[in-house]
Write a structure and sequence with these properties.
The structure is a homodimer.
Chain A lengths: L28 H7 L5 E2 H5 L7 H13 L3 E6 L5 E6 L1 H4 L2 H26 L1
Antiparallel strand pairs in A: 1-3, 2-3
Chain A binds a DNA duplex through helix 2 and helix 3.
DNA sequence: GATACCGGTTACTTCAACGGAACCAATGGC
DNA sequence: GCCATTGGTTCCGTTGAAGTAACCGGTATC
């Protein structure tokens, strides 16, 4: 009995998981979702824990998540401005795969780094 | 009781999950791991199901996974050449987070695309 | 002699993500 | 009058991932 080798139809031509709105290991999208897990936050409340992010990149990240229906943006007509970002139900579904990846990193990152150090050096 | 807002130490400065060797939604790395799940495959056996990938990009993807200790490369001194790629134990640990992301896409991709169509349109 | 096969390599180009710095409006406080 | 605050925007540049096309050695087959 020979093991079947995947043929050219093994993957969906428009590979669905390629369309995931955030990438694991992506720099910022996953952080935003995790930060919003316990309720809405303001722009600066998101920005503070994500130390290295610039306003520009955080704005881009949030717009992208908003476009994909993962977060909502609510602006209040106050001065100074107040804007709140909140996870949608759809956005909340991202928590499971994100957690799976965080768990992976917690368990296996040392082994990865060791392999990489050996390869590089 | 006010909800605690994450401060600047919420994330590890060198955010560990940012170092995941493949990215979900990444174009090729995840496919390679999934294809190798049931045993070693040759270069062309990997390339065939990944229709759109070029030799160059597949080589780069495999080198990167090899560097991170996720796959091994075994070349046999034959003509024509034979090279087999195989998942390591470490590489096998990637199957869980990848599956979590494939499950996510299967369940939620339609909702994402709908949100995106509404936003764009 | 020409062609096909396998597992690539090399040079060049394109594109998106990311980053730095400057700037903004409206208001409140000193 | 001057500065600080909030939530951004704009311009510019860098980087890396990805794609295109051409080419390779060594053998076997036609």
């Amino acid at each position: 009995m020979t093991r079947p080798i995947p043929d050219e139809d093994f993957f969906d031509p428009a590979c669905p998981s390629s369309a995931m709105p955030i990438r694991v290991g992506e720099k910022w999208g996953g952080m935003v979702v995790v930060l919003l897990e316990n309720g809405p936050l303001r722009f600066t409340e998101l920005k503070r824990p994500m130390r290295a992010v610039t306003s520009k990149v955080l704005t881009e990240t949030l717009r992208s998540l908003e476009r994909d229906g993962m977060v909502t943006r609510t602006a209040y007509a106050e001065v100074p401005p107040r804007v709140e970002y909140e996870l949608t139900d759809l956005g909340r579904t991202l928590l499971a795969p994100i957690q799976a990846c965080r768990d992976w990193a917690a368990a296996n990152l040392p082994a990865l780094l060791e392999a990489r150090a050996g390869w590089d050096g």
